[in-house]
Amino acid sequence: MYKLSKIQVNDRKKGYFFIDLEESAGSTITLEVHEDVLVVHALRKGMELTQDQFESIKSEENQIKIYHLAINYLSYRMRTKQEMEEYLMKKGFQRGEIHPLIERLLKEKLLDDRAFAEAFVRTRIRLTTKGPNLILRELDKAGVREDDASSAISSYSFDAQLDNASKYLKKKASAGKAKRSSAEEHNRLSRLLMQRGYNTNVIKPVLTGISPQTEEDEWKALEKHGEKAARKFARHNGREFEQKVKQYLYRKGFPFPMIDAFVAELREEE
After folding, report:
1. What is the CATH number of domain 114-153?
2. What's the CA gap between 74 and 76, in Å, rounded?
3. Distances (CA, A) of 194 to 165, 173, 174, 184, 261
4. What CATH number has the domain spanning 217-269?
5. What is the pLDDT along the chain (270 residues), one digit of tens a residue?
6. Locate the RecX first three-helical domain: which residues (predicted)?
7. Same fold yes or no, 114-153 and 217-269
């Protein structure tokens, strides 16, 4: 048996009280309880509690604690079921405690993975340049089911993908000028768009719309790589040297006429 000897307001935590319970052995236990628990059990000074009542109070208090923790976690942004479960487990709660809470949050529509996916996709489209495949991977990581994710990503129109892919590519394309051959730059940009989550039906038209590298830029890039090749194969002489340099530049994607012109310049400098 327990006797409730004291009820005191918790000045540091709104809606909470401290209650002192004297055990039959003479020791005192202090519990922090929410006002809802206080009301439901009609707790008052001098009241005697059985062991079952004591355990019930602790259980209900724990349920309130985990619920308020979940509500606070949701106050920053929407969450998926998986995110909520992982968060509460990190806070030290067990699956048996988490499952009833998840069911309550689902019933109250505070957790809704499909709504989360739809909002997530809208935000990604508006605020980032990520393609649909990358967004789908993010949804999968957050625990969204495939059917919910597929339904949400369908709102990412082809035109919106073209627009976002173009924005992303303009920044990346300017960084590659005068560094690579046109062919190598084309392949690099294609890989970047693929990694960004876009499919070939978007990549091809976007690459077509990018301003091609000027002949002057490509020549500067060729000179840079050509000089590197000349140093690399300096131990070779004559025709063998020229062949090594040509092969190196060809693998970099430069056109034959430019390569021949560069090698001719090297020959004249000898």
Report:
1. 1.10.10.10
2. 5
3. 10, 15, 18, 15, 34
4. 1.10.10
5. 889 999 999 998 888 999 899 988 788 999 999 998 899 889 999 999 989 999 999 888 889 999 999 999 999 999 999 999 999 999 999 999 999 999 999 999 999 999 999 999 999 999 999 999 999 999 999 999 999 999 999 999 999 999 999 999 888 876 555 567 777 888 889 999 999 999 999 999 998 877 566 667 777 777 788 888 888 887 887 788 888 888 888 887 787 887 788 777 777 666
6. 67-105
7. yes
Q: What tokens appear for 176 in the block?
A: 């590659």
Q: DSSP of the chain, one letter per residue?
A: -EEEEEEEE-TTSTTEEEEEEEETTS-EEEEEEEHHHHHHTT--TT-EE-HHHHHHHHHHHHHHHHHHHHHHHHTTS---HHHHHHHHHHTT--HHHHHHHHHHHHHTTS--HHHHHHHHHHHHHHH----HHHHHHHHHHTT--HHHHHHHHTTS-HHHHHHHHHHHHHHHHHHHTTTS-HHHHHHHHHHHHHHTT--HHHHHHHHHHSPPPPHHHHHHHHHHHHHHHHHHTTTS-HHHHHHHHHHHHHHTT--HHHHHHHHHHHHHH-
Q: Token digits for 126?
A: 């508006």
List Cβ neighbours of 146 (8 Å cut-off, separation of 6 or more). 140
Q: Cβ(76)–Cβ(114) under 8 Å?
A: no
Reading the block at residue 100, the tokens are: 């009833």
Domain borders along the chain are 114-153, 161-209, 217-269
